[in-house]
């Protein structure tokens, strides 16, 4: 039995959830459900990143203590579990005491290795990224990810991590074909390392930023938010004490997969892996990077008014329809553009007029002319998810849906049953069995719909309309 660990990144909890993170959650959930269906042991984690300058500034702006502020937004992200029907085993918060203790242990191990030192540094700091920027990272003198934010020139005494010590080790790690997916992100990571690694700051002066985990043995400093947040991937498993054995089972001896956005390559595949190497902990086996979701050809932003909330999607289309849209109509690794008009078209064409109509056609005939289903329950008929191609897996399922729909149109069982009852029953039985197979193909992607179709077949009863018209 394989033991497999999967985690999303931790979103900053300084705003409500957006559709981009919902994509990451649903992708990870589909993978976790696919693994479980195959009989693997699975630990699926997500959570909330709650420290740093952005959180502190946002809390001050609304006149709240940082902890009160993050408690509110962490709860908003936790609601996604029910709204998106997620199967995660853990929700880690970086303000948890247990996590703080793990981060301090990570610091001590890296320090014992000689990889942490203190120096005075002057650099350009992007609050949006919570990171210092080098000249080669800037585009037109600004951060390419946050071009509307002014970079702050900051000079202070910080602790630094000897990133430069791990250039060769990271290249060796990245030579493994499965270390990063898709391939061009691995090439991007390799190019970054070959361009030369600069040691990075891992603390801030407490006098300037108090909202963070204290640096061991130095009350004047708190940890840089990325050093803190990245450690969640093992603190959620109980590291370092590992009282329940989850770290040993799922990380040290298991197969590990991290799901992240395309802007995370430097942090997930380089900085985090170097930290693990420094602490003598096994590296992540694979990091999968998805693309971004844009709207009307523009990056989503509150100022443009084009932000789409996952809660709005669920309110309009339902949970499984939202999962369907994210998995079938959003490219797994490239950027995808969505508008409410497109969303309506996808829902109506493929769910209301597609799957929903097919279920109604088959089960109406079955309920009218057949006895209760007595065949073998084909629960192992799952569509393989290869190379994180969610679209491909969903397309395969919809090809089956379209074939069955076409077969019903061509064979006209509603006519055959009148002229030759025995032949008609055999035809309807065949269609009902194929519908049950489709239900099980949908298990990891649209779990509630899968269960509804399965239950309808077993009960031999046409269900309520699965996807009502808009």
Description of the structure:
The protein is built from 18 helices and 16 strands. The protein has helices at residues 19-37, 53-61, 66-78, 80-83, 97-112, 167-174, 183-194, 225-230, 232-235, 246-252, 265-278, 310-317, 319-328, 340-369, 390-411, 413-419, 421-441, 447-459, and strands at 3-7, 41-48, 90-93, 116-126, 131-133, 152-161, 180-181, 200-201, 203-205, 214-215, 218-223, 255-261, 286-290, 293-295, 298-299, 336-337. The strands form four sheets. The chain has a six-stranded parallel beta sheet, sandwiched between helices. The two termini are 45 Å apart.
Number of helices: 18
How many strands, which pairing sense, and closed or not: the largest β-sheet?
A: 6 strands, parallel
Question: What is the terminal separation in angstroms?
Answer: 45 Å
Q: What number is the mean pLDDT?
A: 93
């Amino acid at each position: 039995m394989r033991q497999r660990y999967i985690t999303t990144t931790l979103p900053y909890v300084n705003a409500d959830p957006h559709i981009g993170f919902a994509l990451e959650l649903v992708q990870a959930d589909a993978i976790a459900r696919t693994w479980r269906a195959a009989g693997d042991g699975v630990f699926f984690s997500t959570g909330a990143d709650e420290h740093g300058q952005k959180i502190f500034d946002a809390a001050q702006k609304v006149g709240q203590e940082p902890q009160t502020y993050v408690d509110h937004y962490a709860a908003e992200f936790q609601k996604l579990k029910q709204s998106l029907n997620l199967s995660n085993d853990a929700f880690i918060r970086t303000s948890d005491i247990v996590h703080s203790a793990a981060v301090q242990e990570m610091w001590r191990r890296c320090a014992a290795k000689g990889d942490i030192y203190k120096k005075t540094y002057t650099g350009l700091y992007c609050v949006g990224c919570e990171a210092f920027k080098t000249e080669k990272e800037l585009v037109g003198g600004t951060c390419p990810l946050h071009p509307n934010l002014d970079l702050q020139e900051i000079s202070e005494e910080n602790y630094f991590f000897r990133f430069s010590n791990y250039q060769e080790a990271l290249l060796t790690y990245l030579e493994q074909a499965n270390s990063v997916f898709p391939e061009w992100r691995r090439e991007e990571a390799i190019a970054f390392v070959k361009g030369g690694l600069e040691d990075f700051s891992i603390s801030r002066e407490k006098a300037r930023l108090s909202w963070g985990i204290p640096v061991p043995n130095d009350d004047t400093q708190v940890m840089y938010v990325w050093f803190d947040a990245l450690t969640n991937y093992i603190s959620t498993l109980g590291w370092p004490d590992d009282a329940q054995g989850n770290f040993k089972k799922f990380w040290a001896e298991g197969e590990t997969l991290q799901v992240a956005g395309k802007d995370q390559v430097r942090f997930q595949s380089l900085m985090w892996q170097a930290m693990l190497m420094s602490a003598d902990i096994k590296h992540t086996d694979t990091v999968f990077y998805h693309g971004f979701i844009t709207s009307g050809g523009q990056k989503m932003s509150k100022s443009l008014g084009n932000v789409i909330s996952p809660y709005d999607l669920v309110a309009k289309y339902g949970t499984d329809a939202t999962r369907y849209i994210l998995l079938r109509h959003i490219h797994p690794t490239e950027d995808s553009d969505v508008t409410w008009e497109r969303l309506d078209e996808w829902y109506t064409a493929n769910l209301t007029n597609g799957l929903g109509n097919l279920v109604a056609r088959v089960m109406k005939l079955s309920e009218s002319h057949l006895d209760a289903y007595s065949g073998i329950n084909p629960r192992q008929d799952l569509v393989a998810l290869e190379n994180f191609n969610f679209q491909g897996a969903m397309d395969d399922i919809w090809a089956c849906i379209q074939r069955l729909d076409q077969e019903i149109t061509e064979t006209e069982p509603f006519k055959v049953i009148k002229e030759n009852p025995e032949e008609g029953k055999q035809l309807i039985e065949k269609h009902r069995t194929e519908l049950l197979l489709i239900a099980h193909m949908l298990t990891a992607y649209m779990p509630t719909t899968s269960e509804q179709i399965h239950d309808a077949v077993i009960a031999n009863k046409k269900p309520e309309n699965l996807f009502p018209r808009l």
